[in-house]
UniProtKB/TrEMBL annotation, chain A:
Sequence similarity: Belongs to the thiolase-like superfamily. Thiolase family.
CDD domains the UniProt entry points to: thiolase
InterPro entries: Thiolase, Thiolase-like, Thiolase_acyl_enz_int_AS, Thiolase_AS, Thiolase_C, Thiolase_CS, Thiolase_N
Protein name per UniProt: Acetyl-CoA acetyltransferase
Catalytic-site annotation from UniProt: 91, 357, 387
UniProt xrefs under NCBIfam families: AcCoA-C-Actrans, PRK08242.1
UniProtKB/TrEMBL annotation, chain B:
Family according to the record: In the central section; belongs to the 3-hydroxyacyl-CoA dehydrogenase family.
Source species taxonomy: Bacteria, Pseudomonadati, Pseudomonadota, Alphaproteobacteria, Caulobacterales
Catalytic reactions on record: a (3S)-3-hydroxyacyl-CoA + NAD(+) = a 3-oxoacyl-CoA + NADH + H(+)
Name of protein: 3-hydroxyacyl-CoA dehydrogenase
Originating organism: Caulobacter zeae
Cross-referenced PANTHER family: TRIFUNCTIONAL ENZYME SUBUNIT ALPHA, TRIFUNCTIONAL ENZYME SUBUNIT ALPHA, MITOCHONDRIAL
Oxidoreductase among keywords: yes
InterPro entries assigned: 3-OHacyl-CoA_DH_NAD-bd, 3HC_DH_C, 6-PGluconate_DH-like_C_sf, ClpP/crotonase-like_dom_sf, Enoyl-CoA_hydra/iso, FA_oxidation_alpha_subunit, NAD(P)-bd_dom_sf
Length: 401, 732
């Protein structure tokens, strides 16, 4: 079987995912197309060599519906022979898209693919796609459904993370993101988003707040106390009766931000790279997904990491850098606790608490961040993972070549 | 047709009068269901009929819904899995009424309902199939779908029509909790169209037919929108997402009826009406097949009704009208008993050691009456008349002329003996002496009596004005007349009596005690206290065993343990937890809720929290709970009580499964979804129950060992209701 190499990784900056966000006036299709255009233009790519474009998107309705991957391929003026498919593994969609794109290469189905994702959360709000899981009593009862924020608070309650713990993590995330931006660590992969005239409308992540302190966070009320008390705390204690009382610690300041953005990763065989004059920057060493307990929902990352490392014959300590999507602070704290990962190996350039989490795109974005960071810090291997709705985890290990 | 009378007037309006012969109240008997089909056929095909008004010929109301006697019998669907043919037959039978109502609704002729009294369950569903509803302005008239309360699902279109009329959120409490509505409320909720003075319903209904007479239901119109939206509209989705969680919060997933109602609504609202009612019927049948439905119909409806009519009363004793009762002891229990007696019109002598203490006891009734008056539930005059029936006194001479005495003094043999003598000195030979003890054997107390054949236990539950059960306990010498008289008294004060034989803790306290004890066993097994109480609550018991223990009081529990040890001597089995309680009570002064210190701490502001020191006293070795452990704890807590109930049968403490089940649910709050501990055993099957008990006994000890009776029943394939149940009476 072939090896899958990463030739390039591109992402948009992340715009605040509200009506007053800079990217709100840019369509999701445009975000996806601009990423594809950038991959083509930066690499002088003959797009007819691309077999397939796999894009993650979590709310594939409205303007994000109807297979936005194929639509973006056509809008970006790729060769019409390039196929496109939109996939959904909730928050890990962007990474899953990369994994699928890589799998196509590894299996021999394709020689050159793009994996990535797009989500304009300001234009197609989270939850727009509905879905049976929380709504249909048949699945809601069976899975003890609770909203992710309550699940994150349940993790904090069960594993003993206090409000100070999660806030301190958030302060550090903001600090790291600000420093990474200041030092230009994202410059290789971030391409500014252009408006309808072709002018730059956004060239940096819009939600980073270097000034965040424990004091500023302390003023925020926990976000999930109300719905918890109404019903979901009871659901949590029925599934986890060891919890005497839920403590709600998550709020907008220590959870991932709602943002708009898109990303893409160019993947192919060594041979195709050589033929097109593309330099291989990293190799996909392994990939895995796992299902975990659905109500607590967000404990998949450590489980899928263990699964993948075992498959690769590696130990936790063999990985130089970990990148776990900062859906909620407790999710990261729990993975570090479970696998004994030091904080200086985890999310070294900050994460979604500072820069936001454009659901369908994040996985591809943070994979790109790791490609850049391995090169910058001259390290060898990185593991990228995300927690996933309904209790799942997806992970990828990459190594420099 | 025997149940419906049709009169067509000069305008072509058919007045259909619903009047089931030989019954005081209309119910949807098998015969009615069959005739609804014929009725609809006639309406459709008779060209002379231009419109229809449906009303009832009963003064008691329009219709009380399904005949639960019949349905409970066919509740024979209970639990058994049926083949394809059986399921199809069940569907066809279950769909008949739904289909007939739908045909009435789509007959093309306008149908108006003139609702002249209560319309519940299938009765309300009947009128919901009409195009227009006029209801009499009677303040007590109830409209509702109480099916969920007895483990059923409204199967006559109710889940579909009510939600399409009101919206899902507004309909939820009526469907899921069986809440009922009064006429004005129903008008506001758009469930009925018009409220008119009683007696004018038919006229108003006819007027609508003549003036408007639209024969198309709202949901059959092109522009119909579900109020608040269906499951996949932004607001509708929130209703379901929250609704599913609230339902789990409230029911712990123990009640298939509520879950199936949610499913029927969710799925039904996404399809055209004809498909929606098919979905509803499928869930109706699915629900009816559950052991929960069978147990709940039987216990919470049929048995409760039967016991409420004195089913356990010995035959051949003339009715005993209790007019005057002396209550000895004006403490919490005595005061409560005095109040319920006065409410039932019984002249009550409330005696305590001092006039002051007796007055204080009456004060309890005064408080309750005052509250009822201020809420408009009682008039000032009626309230005063009720209070005038209670005579507080310290003088036993006032006992004279009492038909019955309820002794409610301290749980102390000597004190009880003393007041027994004082009261008996004043009593006529025919009077009954009842002791409201919850722990002391009646036969022993009767030794103080000069007339032990008239001596009986009348065990009330606290708070007396809220708890519906009274446990009647027979001493060795108690005679049949005394039993009958006591039952007559209990029925008069509108409580449900069960009759049991003398035993330590009788029936209810003995079985309830095992729940609390098993909680202690779990604690000494090293299970985290939060797990014990959370799972305890999730079994459907009102509270977890540890918090329940705090409520009962740990010092009381300790006292009983010490007394039992003294009484039983060598036979007493010392359990590890008795030392825990002894330490908490004797060394640490933790008596439970009453002194704010027990397994929980009770801060003045805010909810109780588990006492952190508990883990120093008992080492917690099991800190996490997976589904298997949850299931195991659940089984231990419920089966421990159920096996005790079975032992009570073996020992003859209790003899009627109806009394055992009703007594359990009303008396100590045994998980209602089971239909009671005996229904629980019958539901899982005695053989399976025995098998599980053997496993539990091997793992946890002899307290789970199945009694010989259970083994015998398992071998013979018997059920409790089969072996001990009342044989079907001819023509109910």
């Amino acid at each position: 079987m072939a090896d899958a190499y990463i030739f390039d990784a591109v992402r948009t900056p992340r715009g605040k995912g509200k009506k007053d966000g800079s990217l709100h006036e840019i369509t999701a299709l445009s975000l996806a197309s601009q990423v594809l255009e950038a991959i083509r233009d930066r690499n002088n790519l003959d797009t007819s060599k691309v077999d397939d474009v796999v894009l993650g998107c979590v709310a594939p309705v409205g303007e994000q519906g109807s297979d936005i991957a194929r639509t973006a391929v056509l809008t970006a003026d790729y060769a019409e022979s390039v196929a496109g498919v939109q996939i959904n593994r909730f928050c890990a969609s962007g990474l899953e898209a990369v994994n699928m794109a890589a799998a196509k290469v590894i299996s021999g189905e394709a020689d050159l693919t793009i994996g990535g994702g797009v989500e304009s959360m300001s234009r197609v709000p989270m939850g727009s796609d509905g879905g049976a899981w929380p709504t249909d009593p048949s699945s809601a009862f069976k899975t003890y459904f609770m909203p992710q924020g309550v699940s994150a608070d349940l993790i904090a309650t069960l594993y003993g993370f206090s409000r100070d713990d999660v806030d301190a993590y958030a302060v550090e995330s903001q600090k790291r993101a600000a420093q990474a931006w200041a030092e230009g660590r994202f410059n290789k992969s971030v391409v500014p988003v252009k408006d309808q005239l072709g002018l730059n409308i956004l060239s940096h992540d819009e939600t980073v707040r270097a000034s965040t302190t424990m004091q500023t966070l302390a003023s925020l009320n926990p976000s999930f106390t109300g719905m918890g008390e109404m019903a979901f705390d009871a659901v949590a204690t029925q599934r986890y009766p060891q919890v005497e009382r839920m403590t709600h610690v998550h709020h907008a300041g220590n959870s991932s931000g709602i943002v708009d953005g898109a990303a893409g990763v160019l993947i192919g065989t060594k041979e195709m790279g050589d033929a097109l004059g593309l330099k291989a920057r990293a190799r996909i060493k392994g990939m895995a997904s796992i299902g975990s307990e659905p109500s607590i929902m967000l404990t998949g990352p450590s489980l899928v990491t263990e699964k993948l490392l075992k498959k690769l014959g590696m130990e936790v300590g063999d990985i130089d850098l970990y990148e776990l999507n900062e859906a909620f602070a407790a999710v990261v704290l729990r993975m570090m606790q479970a696998l004994d990962i030091p904080h200086d190996k985890m999310n070294v350039n900050g994460g979604a608490i500072a820069m936001g989490h454009p659901l369908g795109a994040t996985g591809a974005m943070i994979l790109g961040t790791m490609v850049d960071e391995l090169e910058r810090s001259d390290k060898e291997t990185a593991l990228i993972t995300l927690c996933v709705g309904a209790g799942m985890g997806t992970a990828t290990v990459i190594e420099r070549v | 047709m025997e149940n419906f009378k049709i009169e067509v007037d000069g305008d072509g309006i058919a007045l259909v009068t619903f009047d089931v012969p030989g019954r005081t109240m209309n119910t949807l008997t098998a015969s009615v269901i069959k005739e609804v089909g014929e009725l609809v056929e006639r309406i459709k095909t008779d060209a002379e009929i231009k419109g229809v008004v449906i009303t009832s010929g009963k003064t008691t109301g329009f219709c009380a819904g399904a005949d639960l006697g019949e349905l409970g019998g066919s509740g024979g669907l209970g639990g058994a899995s049926k083949g394809q043919e059986g399921l199809q037959a069940a569907f066809d039978a279950g769909f008949a009424l739904n289909k007939a109502f739908r045909e009435l609704e789509t007959s093309g002729k306008p149908v108006a309902a003139a609702i002249n009294g209560l319309a519940l369950g299938g009765g309300l569903e009947f009128v919901l199939a009409a195009h227009y509803r006029v209801v009499a302005d009677l303040p007590k008239l109830q409209l509702g779908l109480p099916e969920a309360k007895v483990g059923l699902l409204p199967g006559g279109g109710g889940t579909q029509r009510l939600t399409r009329l009101m919206g899902v959120m507004a309909a939820a409490p009526y469907l899921l909790e069986g809440k009922s509505m009064k006429p004005a409320e129903a008008l506001g909720l758009k469930v009925v169209h018009e409220v008119v003075p009683a007696g004018q319903e038919v006229e108003a209904a006819k007027t609508w037919i003549k003036t408007k007479g639209d024969p198309v239901a709202p949901w059959d119109k092109k522009d119909f929108k579900i109020p608040g939206g269906g499951p996949y509209t932004p607001t509708g989705a929130q209703v379901f997402i929250m609704g599913n969680a609230m339902l789990r919060k409230n029911t712990y997933g123990n009640y298939p009826a509520q879950q199936n109602i949610m499913k029927a609504v969710y799925e039904g609202l996404q399809v055209p009406f004809d498909a929606a009612i098919r979905i509803e019927t499928r869930y109706f049948i699915k629900t009816l097949m559950t052991p929960q439905a069978k147990g709940m119909i039987r216990t919470l409806f049929l048995s409760l009704q039967e016991l409420g009519k004195g089913a356990g009363r010995p035959d051949g004793v003339p009715h005993y009208d209790v007019k005057k009762v002396a209550v000895l002891g004006a403490g919490m229990m005595g005061a409560g008993i005095a109040y319920v007696q006065a409410m039932a019109g019984i002249e009550t002598v409330l005696i305590d050691q001092s006039q002051e203490a007796a007055d204080k006891g009456k004060g309890y009734a005064e408080g309750l009456v005052k509250k009822a008056v201020s809420r408009g539930k009682l008039t000032q005059e009626k309230g005063e008349a009720i209070l005038a029936l209670i005579h507080p006194t310290a003088d036993y001479a006032n006992v004279k002329g009492s038909d019955l005495v309820v002794e409610a003094v301290f749980e102390n043999r000597e004190v009880k003996a003393a007041v027994t003598k004082l009261a008996e000195a004043q009593l006529a030979d025919t009077a009954v002496f009842g002791s409201n003890t919850s722990t002391l054997p009646i036969t022993g107390l009767a030794e103080a009596s000069i007339r032990p054949e008239s001596f009986i236990g009348i065990h009330f539950f606290s708070p007396v004005d809220k708890m519906g059960l009274v446990e009647i306990i027979l001493g060795e010498k108690t005679d049949q007349a005394t039993i009958a008289k006591s039952i007559d008294y209990v029925l008069k004060i509108k409580k449900t009596p069960i009759v049991v034989n003398d035993s330590r803790g009788f029936y209810t306290s003995r079985c309830f005690g095992t729940f609390v004890q098993e909680g202690m066993e779990l604690l000494s097994d090293g299970i985290a206290p939060a797990i014990i109480d959370n799972v305890g609550r999730a079994t459907g018991m009102p509270r977890g065993p540890l918090e329940m223990h705090d409520d009962v009081a740990l010092d009381l529990s300790h006292k009983i343990a010490v007394q039992t040890k003294k009484d039983l001597g060598d036979k007493y089995e010392e359990r590890p937890f008795t030392a825990i309680i002894a330490k908490m009570v004797e060394d640490l002064g933790r008596y439970g809720r009453k002194n704010g210190k027990g397994f929980y701490d009770y801060p003045e502001n805010g909810p109780k929290t588990l006492w952190p020191g508990l883990s120093d006293l008992v080492e917690v070795t099991v800190k996490d709970a997976d589904k298997a452990l949850i299931e195991q704890i659940r089984t231990r807590l419920l089966y421990r009580q159920a096996v005790e109930a079975a032992r009570c049968f073996e020992e003859g403490v209790i003899t009627d499964p109806r009394e055992a089940d009703v007594g359990a649910i009303l008396g100590w709050g045994f998980a209602p979804w089971t239909g009671g501990p005996i229904s629980l055993i019958d539901g899982v099957g005695v053989a399976t129950f025995v098998e599980t008990l053997d496993q539990l006994a091997a793992a946890y000890g002899a307290r789970f060992t199945p009694p010989a009776l259970l083994r015998e029943m398992a071998a013979k394939g018997e059920t409790f209701y089969g072996r001990f149940g009342v044989k079907e009476k001819a023509a109910a």
